[in-house]
């Protein structure tokens, strides 16, 4: 459960935030004065704070400074009128997350809050390493050889003031590793900022990172402080750095070379002391050969490189991860699921996981929404996972009805080899026919030359859902 504290003397603003953001996952706390807000902040420790710069007892800026002394890591967003723009900019220089202008636009507020909550989670929750798994916090879970190398690398580099490049496919956990490096570094009490370079258009990425001066471009109506300046003395995480434009790459290179930059539209060099942690799912060497990424920037970023393996290469970790996510989300979804059925695990292991650990986490969440009882059964998994996994299992088992397969099953001590082979063949046959008929059982039974009753019985015994084949 995440919490938002709104400090504003206008009751209509407080009520608007409650109506818009109070939910099963978000608690909205409200205060009408700076003093009341400070007390709530100290007692309840909210994840994100919104402050009006004009408060009845003290200025919003002074309230912000007091909150910073209690916990400088909590993202603070200012609400401001046009008369307090300079104060809002000054607050951003001091570490405020962002500022919004009245009248407030719901979509803009929601977008800023989503990013602030994500940043708050990254800053305040220290990821646990293998063997310390806890369902309350994020954890880097896994015990395969490749992940043990990742843990060693985190330990070696965290205390060093070095630039780190995290490599790996989407969903492998690069963000959580960046969190772990930050939390185990000497900068853990300093600011942490994050930018997803792939999620921001090229035209806006420079401004987001370096800030801009008033009049720098058409919509630059006021000065803006960038994330790099806000991260001074701390850490900046650049996710998907391979998606940066050549111009932004050149400016980032200067930061890595001499710790200075200029805001967009500015000509004054600004010095910063920032540690860069970058991540990408691209093959940067290939981008370099294609002229899309600077070789000199690659060398600067990859002082230390950590490669995160895809889930399909993490032998034995899928079961550990599945059980971890089951424990983590079971209570949250109001379930009492205590174990994963062997048949379910077999399907999960057969799936190819293009989205890696992030996709596995999503699949477990979806399964818990429909689960009943206290064991996670195959039918609770999303249809796409079931269909693709059964297809893989069917193909594999039918292809292996050979001397090698038979010898392997005999060596394994099977005493149901005939039933296993027949089931594999029937599963492959029925799924192919149902695909051809788009799930129409009447047509399928006609092609197979069996009655609909027999077909239904076989589908049930083999765990095949005919409706998943319908268009």
Describe the structure.
The chain folds into four domains: 2-120, 3-Layer(aba) Sandwich (Rossmann fold), CATH 3.40.50.2300; 145-309, P-loop containing nucleotide triphosphate hydrolases (Rossmann fold, 3-Layer(aba) Sandwich); 311-381, Helicase, Ruva Protein, domain 3 (Orthogonal Bundle), CATH 1.10.8.60; 389-471, Arc Repressor Mutant, subunit A. The chain has 471 residues and is of the alpha/beta class. The protein is 48% helix and 13% strand. The longest helix has 20 residues, at 417-436. The strands form five sheets. A five-stranded parallel β-sheet has the order 2-1-3-4-5, sandwiched between helices.
What's the layout of helices and strands?
Elements: E1 2-7, H1 11-21, E2 26-31, H2 34-44, E3 48-52, H3 60-70, E4 76-80, H4 85-93, E5 98-101, H5 106-124, H6 145-157, E6 164-167, H7 174-183, E7 192-196, H8 202-210, E8 211-212, E9 224-225, H9 227-230, E10 235-239, H10 246-258, E11 260-261, E12 270-271, E13 275-280, H11 284-289, H12 295-301, E14 304-307, H13 317-330, E15 339-340, H14 342-350, H15 356-370, E16 375-376, H16 383-399, H17 403-411, H18 417-436, H19 441-448, H20 452-462
Parallel strand pairs: 1-2, 1-3, 3-4, 4-5, 6-13, 6-14, 7-10, 10-13, 15-16
Antiparallel strand pairs: 8-9, 11-12
């Amino acid at each position: 459960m995440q919490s938002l504290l709104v400090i504003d003397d206008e009751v209509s603003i407080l009520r608007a935030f409650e109506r818009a953001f109070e939910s099963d996952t978000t608690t909205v706390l409200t205060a009408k004065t700076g003093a009341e807000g400070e007390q709530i902040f100290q007692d309840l420790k909210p994840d994100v704070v919104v402050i009006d710069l004009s408060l009845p007892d003290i200025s919003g800026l002074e309230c912000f400074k007091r909150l910073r002394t209690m916990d400088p890591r909590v993202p603070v967003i200012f609400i401001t009128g046009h008369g307090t723009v300079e104060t809002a900019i000054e607050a951003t220089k001091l570490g405020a997350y962002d500022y919004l202008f009245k009248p407030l636009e719901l979509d803009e507020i929601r977008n800023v809050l989503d990013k602030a909550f994500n940043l708050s989670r990254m800053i305040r929750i220290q990821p646990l390493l293998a063997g310390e798994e806890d369902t309350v916090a994020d954890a880097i879970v896994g015990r395969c050889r490749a992940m043990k190398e990742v843990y060693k690398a985190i330990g070696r580099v965290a205390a060093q003031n070095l630039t780190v490049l995290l490599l790996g496919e989407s969903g492998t956990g690069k963000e959580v590793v960046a969190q772990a490096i930050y939390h185990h570094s000497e900068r853990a009490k300093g600011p942490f900022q994050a930018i997803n370079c792939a999620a921001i258009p090229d035209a806006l990425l420079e401004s987001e990172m370096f800030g801009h001066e008033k009049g720098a471009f058409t919509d630059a109506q006021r000065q803006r402080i960038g994330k790099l300046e806000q991260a001074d003395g701390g850490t900046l995480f650049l996710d998907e750095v391979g998606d940066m434009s050549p111009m932004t790459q050149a400016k980032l290179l200067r930061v890595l070379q001499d710790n200075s930059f200029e805001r967009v539209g500015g000509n004054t060099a600004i010095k910063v002391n920032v540690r860069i942690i970058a991540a990408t799912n691209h093959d940067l060497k290939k981008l370099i050969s294609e002229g899309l990424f600077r070789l000199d920037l690659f060398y600067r970023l990859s002082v230390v490189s950590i490669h995160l393996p895809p889930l399909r290469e993490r032998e034995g970790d899928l079961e550990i991860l599945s059980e971890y996510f089951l424990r983590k989300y079971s209570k949250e979804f109001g379930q009492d699921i205590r174990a994963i059925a062997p048949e379910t695990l077999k399907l999960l292991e057969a799936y190819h996981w293009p989205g890696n650990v992030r996709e596995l986490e999503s699949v477990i969440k979806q399964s818990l929404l429909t689960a009943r009882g206290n064991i996670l059964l195959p039918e609770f998994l999303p249809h796409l996972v079931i269909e693709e996994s059964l297809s893989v299992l069917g193909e594999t088992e039918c292809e292996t009805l050979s001397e090698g397969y038979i010898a392997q099953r005999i060596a394994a001590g099977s005493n149901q080899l005939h039933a296993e082979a027949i089931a594999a063949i029937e599963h492959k046959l029925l799924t192919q026919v149902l695909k051809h008929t788009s799930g129409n059982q009447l047509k399928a039974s006609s092609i197979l030359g069996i009655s609909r009753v027999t077909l239904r019985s076989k589908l049930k015994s083999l765990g095949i859902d005919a409706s998943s084949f319908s268009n």
